[in-house]
Design goal:
With 390 residues, the protein is an alpha/beta fold. It folds into two domains: 210 residues, 3-Layer(bba) Sandwich (FAD/NAD(P)-binding domain); 99 residues, D-Amino Acid Oxidase, Chain A, domain 2 (2-Layer Sandwich), CATH 3.30.9.30. Helices cover 38% and strands 23% of the residues. The chain has an eight-stranded mixed beta sheet, sandwiched between helices. Helix 1 runs parallel beside helix 10, helix 2 crosses helix 10 and helix 10 packs antiparallel against helix 11. The protein is globular and about 60 Å long. Its cofactor is FAD. GO terms for molecular function: FAD binding; monooxygenase activity. InterPro entries: FAD-bd (IPR002938), FAD-dep_Monooxygenase_BioMet (IPR050493), FAD/NAD-bd_sf (IPR036188). This is Salicylate hydroxylase.
Length: 390
């Protein structure tokens, strides 16, 4: 399908910028609209599993990524109370060999800058900053570019304004969990952290993920606990009350981990919300991707990866289909089963990571019986998605 009208993309995050780049590589012009007046550093660390890094490398971003990310040698599960190792999945060179792409960790702002630079240098992409979509998106975009877009892609995140234009779209739902994101200077890291692996520390009702950020020389920490959203805001800096809740969730953890959490800086809390089911497009000219369509909890570390996969599949469907409705239908048929399977994996991980009592004991016994290769094989469907057949 080759439309004379450009594709308009609302949102210049990972989903929107990857979509713009993917469509441009297929010869389709894009107009990207972002409500922020400038794109500043956002978020904290980010894991790029092989199913996502493969796509970014196909888009020509491999050298830029390798200049800033680290490739952990393993993904390890550790008891948060005793620091006893529970299981480990090989990564590093083994990830490249097994899943035909690297497993990298980096700052989210670094990925956004890489994508932004690539979009800025692509003649078929134009970026419009400071455009807030408060009314009919097609009218706002038409006024801005003096042409009516052929397709509008809503890539504006979990609090998407574009979702209101999709009949039957799902609503945002609070998951019951809070994510705390913190940065730990390398000099203050305890001996249980190393410069190589991604480590998930597990305990009843909470878990902590830690991995090195090459750009800062420190560690990204993400602590996820049961909790409730704020009455006034959905995300923010820590307060005394919030810090007390946070400390209480980890009071039975190993002293080394508690000390790290106490000294870590830049603490922000984020009530974790999801967008489950519902319609993703209007069957005519508007479609949602990424968190705008299907935000999920981070228990499988696949939020950014699903947005990147969405971008590639949408570019493929818009290129191969004969018309927009059939392109949207093909996209939906390709992505919905994949998203639901990843969502189920995230739900399973939440159950396993936060297990208590007899379930926790059973979990540890199961992990003890599985070797690293068996655990890696369990992830083939996830990390090997889109890899060349061997």
């Amino acid at each position: 399908m080759r439309n004379a009208e450009p594709v308009a993309i609302v949102g210049a995050g990972v989903a929107g910028l990857t979509t713009a780049l993917g469509l441009a590589r297929q010869g389709l012009a894009t107009e990207v609209f972002e409500q922020a007046g400038e794109l500043t550093e956002v978020g904290a660390g980010l894991q790029l599993s092989p199913n996502a890094s493969r796509i970014l490398i196909e888009l020509g971003l491999g050298p830029a990524l390798e200049a800033v990310w680290s490739e952990p040698d393993s993904i390890s599960l550790v008891d948060g109370r005793s620091l006893r190792p529970l299981a480990s999945v090989p990564a590093g060179a083994r990830a490249r060999e097994r899943w035909a792409a690297p497993y990298g960790v980096l700052h989210r702002a670094s990925l956004q800058k890489i994508l932004l630079d690539a979009v800025a240098s692509e003649p078929l992409c134009r970026l419009h900053l400071g455009y807030r979509i408060e009314r009919d998106p097609s009218e706002v975009i038409t006024e801005a570019i003096r042409r009516r877009p052929g397709i509008i892609v809503g890539a504006d995140g979990i609090w998407s304004r574009m979702r209101a234009s999709i009949p039957g779209a799902a609503a945002v739902r609070f998951s019951g969990n809070i994510a705390w994101r913190l940065m730990l200077p390398g000099a203050q890291a305890a001996g249980c952290l190393s410069a190589d692996p991604v480590t998930a520390f597990l305990a009843p009702n909470a878990h902590l993920v830690a991995y090195p950020i090459r750009e800062s020389g420190g560690f990204n920490l993400v602590a996820i606990v049961a909790g409730k959203p704020s009455d006034s805001v959905w995300a923010g800096r820590d307060s005394e009350d919030r810090r007390q809740e946070f400390a209480a969730a980890f009071k039975d953890w190993h002293p080394d981990l508690r000390r790290m959490l106490e000294v870590a800086a830049s603490a922000t809390y984020w009530p974790l919300c999801t967008v489950d089911g519902g319609s993703w497009h209007n069957g005519r000219d508007t479609i949602l991707i990424g968190d705008a369509a299907h935000a999920m909890t981070p228990f499988a570390a696949q939020g950014a990866a699903m947005a990147i996969e969405d971008a590639r599949e949408l570019a493929r469907c818009l290129t191969d289909a004969s018309d927009i409705p059939s392109a949207f239908a093909r996209y939906d048929a390709a992505r919905r089963p994949r998203i639901e399977r990843v969502r189920k994996r995230a739900a399973f991980n939440r159950f396993a990571y936060h297990a208590a009592g007899p379930v926790r004991i059973a979990r540890n016994l199961v992990l003890a019986t599985k070797g690293p290769e068996a655990l890696a094989a369990d992830l083939d469907w996830l990390y090997g998605y889109g890899a060349p057949r061997r």
